[in-house]
């Protein structure tokens, strides 16, 4: 028996589904890629986060990479506020510091979806 203290039953079931597909002898690389896209598409950030933790803990590199890529794709063009809210990150900066940072690095806010907050 292997203790899995950080992995709940739902997440473990998803991991097993992924592993079953990726161990099928007759599944082509293309079929696996398509499965990965469909499998991860529509998963909420919290579910993806749990899957990333599980894949990392269980050392399942392929799943870890795919989940992290999906999380990164979902963050693209999102505001700092959206990322903080989604991942429960508290700001380390004062309001004045944030204004200064936005001035100095204005290019970093180009193309950001301000409606996603």
Automatic annotation (TrEMBL):
Coiled coil: none annotated. Signal peptide: none annotated. InterPro entries: SKP1, SKP1-like_dim_sf, SKP1/BTB/POZ_sf, Skp1_comp_dimer. The lineage of its organism: Eukaryota, Viridiplantae, Streptophyta, Embryophyta, Tracheophyta. Transmembrane segments: none annotated. This is SKP1-like protein 19. Pathway: Protein modification; protein ubiquitination. GO terms for biological process: ubiquitin-dependent protein catabolic process. Pfam families: Skp1. It comes from Sesamum radiatum. Residues 67-108 form the SKP1 component dimerisation domain.
């Amino acid at each position: 028996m292997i203790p899995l203290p950080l992995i709940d039953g739902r997440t473990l079931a998803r991991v097993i589904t992924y592993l079953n597909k990726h161990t099928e002898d007759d599944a082509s690389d293309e079929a696996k890629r398509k499965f990965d896209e469909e499998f991860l598409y529509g998963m909420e950030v919290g579910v993806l986060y749990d899957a990333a933790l599980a894949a990392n803990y269980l050392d399942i590199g392929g799943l870890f990479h795919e989940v992290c890529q999906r999380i990164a794709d979902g963050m693209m063009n999102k505001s700092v506020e959206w990322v903080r809210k989604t991942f429960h990150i508290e700001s380390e900066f004062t309001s004045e510091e944030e204004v200064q940072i936005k001035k100095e690095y204005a290019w970093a806010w180009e193309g950001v979806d301000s409606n996603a907050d």
